[in-house]
Give the backbone structure.
Amino acid sequence: MTSDSQDIESATTAMSPVITDAPDSKTRRYDRQLRLWAASGQSALESSRILVLSGTATSTSILKNLVLPGIGHFTILDDAKVSNEDAGNNFFLEGPESIGKPRASEAVRLLRELNESVDGAAELSDISSAIAKGASYFADYSLVIAHNIPYSQLNQLSEILWSDVTLPHLIIVRSAGFLAEFSIQFHEHTIIESHPEMPPSLRLDKPFPALLEHARSLDFENMDVTDHGHIPYAVILVRAMDDWKAKNGGKAPTTTAERDAFKKSIYAMKKKSDEENFDEAVTQFRRAFVETKVPMDVADLFQDQGLTSLTPQSSPFFHLLAALREFCSRPPHTLPLSAALPDMKADTKNYVHLQKLYKTQSEKEKDEFKEILAQSGIGVAGVEMGMVDDFVKNCHGLRILRGKRWGALDANPTALASALLSSPREAATHLALSSVSVLLEQTPQKAITTEAVTAHVLNLLPKGTELPSEVEEALGEVHVPSHSHLDESADLTVSVRSPTADLPNTAAFLGGIVAQEAIKMITKQYVPVNGICAIDLIGCTTGIVRV
Amino acid sequence: MTTTSSTTLRTAHIKAILGNELHSRLPSTKILLVGAGGIGCELLKNVVLTGFGDVTLLDLDTIDLSNLNRQFLFRKKDVKQSKAFVAAKTANQFNPSVRINPIHANIKDPQFDVAWFRSFDIVLNALDNLDARRHVNRMCLAANIPLVESGTAGYLGQVQPILKDRTECFDCLPKPVPKSFPVCTIRSTPSQPIHCIVWAKSYLLPQLFGEDENGGNELDEAEKQGENEQEIATLRKEAQAFTLVRKALRNSQPSANGKMNGNSHASGSADAARLAFDKVFSSDIKNLLSMADMWAHRAPPTPLDFDKIADGSFVLPGATGSKAQSAQTNGKHVNGNGSQTSAPEASSSSSLKDQKELSLQESLVLFVSSTHRLAARLQAGEDTISFDKDDDDTLDFVTAASNLRSAAYGIAGKSRWEIKEMAGNIIPAIATTNAIVAGIIVLQALQVLKKEYSGLRNVHIQRKAEVPLSACSVGPPSKNCAVCRDTYAEFLCDPARVTLSQFINGILGEGDGDGTGERDVSVYEAGRILSDPDFDDNLERTLESLNVSRGKFLNIVDEDGEWGTISVAIGQLPPNHSHDEPAFILPSPLPLPPKIQKPTVIEPPSTPPRKRSADEVEVLNGRPAKRPRVNDAPEVNMASPSKKRRLEEDGLLILENPNEVVDDEPELIAID
Ligand SMILES: [Zn+2]
């Protein structure tokens, strides 16, 4: 595998030329992903610096999926030389030719070929020497990823990175056989663009004046049949409700019977039986009267500790959130209107008109929001304008995640026991991986047996805890043999000595899923896993152990 | 250390985990990997690393000059080679002991018949289009070979193992009408409308109105590095052609002025539209045509002629009964599916303009006018223009350009309304999801090979942070599936020497009532009906004359719905088959379709034996091979789902029916 080594990887993208080629234009190069995380996400990605501890097959798989979309820089810290096993399972080595060479250098060279705009470096030193340098060594990076590093080093590393909120987040990845887990250590993670599945409210129950006026202005009865079939359902509902209220003393329907009658009144507006826009209005009829409020998830954020302790030094996110709280405290007690109109049955003319109404109103409300912000402690100048726009546009999906230090769970027997009760399979996976990792370090020369691991698992739990069968199953998948099997087959020796060696498909899978979470953290978009994500590739399941 | 011992050590861990038996089988397990794109290459890497030793890799596409992939080309000498070949070569370098047989072809080509599929132990699908996925599903069922199926769209992905009679097949559950189109490629050889839309939106529009390419430096750089000179020359020429068009678009007065002044100023944007047209719809296509090997198994495209289209004298070759023609028909059929059918003729309303399919001439006019409008915007100071489905100018441009490209490739045109819908819902594929999916495919393949069927899972990769992956046990085949509930058989023959009646009588055999023997049946090929009890014109025609050839299926549907459908794959006679013997070999034993449980509901007596009116037969006689399906559809005998499916089986019809697009499901992914 010479310089063609990345052929296969490039060919991966050859299916999608837009990503690999046209290096002259970022937009073109990253076209595909831009549509998923937009320019703001892309620029965050491009300025990111990622440190990866260990040059395993899993590590290089993760990096491949970060280099392709275009991170700024990566460093692999690893002092190992390429072993036979590495050569067989790590695609980012040159097969047997790499054996005996420094693993990090080989991998960096091949990974860099995937994307010339990404900078990469190999650091051929021991993890403990990096740890010895302390926080300043890591401060340069925006994210640290550690795969299968020894338990005690992981402990030290996580402690260093936890010591200051400005230090990079840490993604801990562990795998053995078909089991794996990863978690992200962070103090606080705020997300503006969470890309929620629920679209923002159209606020049809509280139509803004221009919308109401528009709905009233249409002459439904005398309209041309074709035009009638192209009125967007939003307008139909506003009009239907306005008519209803006019006939019912200004009140919206409340009882089931009234609501049915309201629904029937929409049907009655049809001119032809096949008017799909009216069918759509009927399907959506609840939107006309269900009250639009601040979504619960967002309302909860108004109680967040970041607001109660707001200071001028707080991050812009919390100043924006404070302004939003103020905005929502005023009538009509909703979030600022979104300009994003979903598709609805309509012709272009009608749809674009409605879109304009929403856009105008949404601009107006954004201006109100900005006024509030201007009067607040931080002022408009304290926040980048693009961020204000993004914030208002995405305010229905705002999220604040708060994390714990890595290892917090293992230090808490009661929490572990309750995790084992609530999600036995995931907790069992975690316990097995944790115990194997500890034992590997304690007795590196010895075979790790089921008995030893089980004993260690029991040690982590409150006295007298009964292990569910999931633990035994998990140990089977890590492929830790029991004492009785130890001498049966010489083939087992290697796996016994190194139960954490990478399996190609586990590594490929982790490469995808961990890179995806890393991208979420870096771009601050989409909601990352919060807790320990436990993976069982025999059952093909993933689940979260809450920390 | 010897090679053997190092190999042993390298694979010891995998061996320990897979078990000796399975592990020792991997090198000789014959695996077919369909698709060398995003998922396919990940998959190939995993397959090789896992220790499989005999891989056939098939992909239709080339790493092509005419698409955007410049960086990739420059670094490699593999330009214009097939993806399959390049991928195979690389994987082989990683592990020379793996036998990788790359095939650059369409999986639907006739030589990939059931017998060919049967030569594999397992098939892995890494395809990005529904039509091909369904095809492979059916071939694997017919050959009784396990299949692991997959697909991705943005952050979403899916893996499904399929075993005949044991699990659901790809077609067991009706595929929801996709709101979004997972498309990861700009194809040099489009086969569906969506390919042309992606091309117009993501390639042509940015080429003309996007950021400047400034490709010259790279070309120089590549030249310095000694890359293939000829390729560079071609690329340079291509870059220059676009530079010329871009200049014309930006540097001159809007064409309207030009025309009004009767201005002879030759570089107006009118000419820019013409320049662009000639480049992409004429000379680029002519270049492609010059590569004869590309068109061995697929219809070559037709270069378009600006002037002839403008004056209405342009005729797509073979416009009668040709691919283009039937594609058009299919397109209309599609549009006619929903309640909007009645609308198109109805009126002059502007809203309906959107739903109308454009003629070639209308597409040209729209191409020129939208190019002018966009050019005027550039000249008025806009730096770059990118696609926005609510920006009429860009939507018009994409509509026109994609329809022109479709016409050149014999693909059904799309209305502006449909294109808006489709272009707005193209979901990019991303590396992370491909990696996840490819890992799972191999794991499922291993379960299949181990015959640990309890471990089979349908896996979905979803966007929920709580459960990134959801796996459910695979369900049994759906009782009503029109694909996997068919009884499969193989009919080896020389289609030139076998008549339809020989075929029917041969397959039905001599029996009496146990599922064999003469009975009233209809025979279908894909969406076409070839015969039924009231329609026997084709019976004495040869299969070849009915365009039934190797690799195709003939479906024998019981007219009274008493017996299951027999799905017969047409195969090739063995080379030593004597010319004196009948020109076919019957399957042995003959297929025995299951007796269909009659619904217990008592039906009104008028329903089941449906006979066609004389008028209808009249119409049919006019077009023996193709029955007007729209009329046929409502009276389909519902006891025979196969028949219904046959009627639906029109390639991409389900995919792109705009009428079904809106439902109450949440959006898959918010792109904007
Ligand atoms: Zn099925």
Summary: Chain B has a mean pLDDT of 73. The longest strand of chain B covers residues 147-153. The pocket of zinc ion is lined by residues B 168-169, 171-172, 477-478, 481, 483-484 (CB under 6 Å). Chain B has 24 helices and 16 strands.
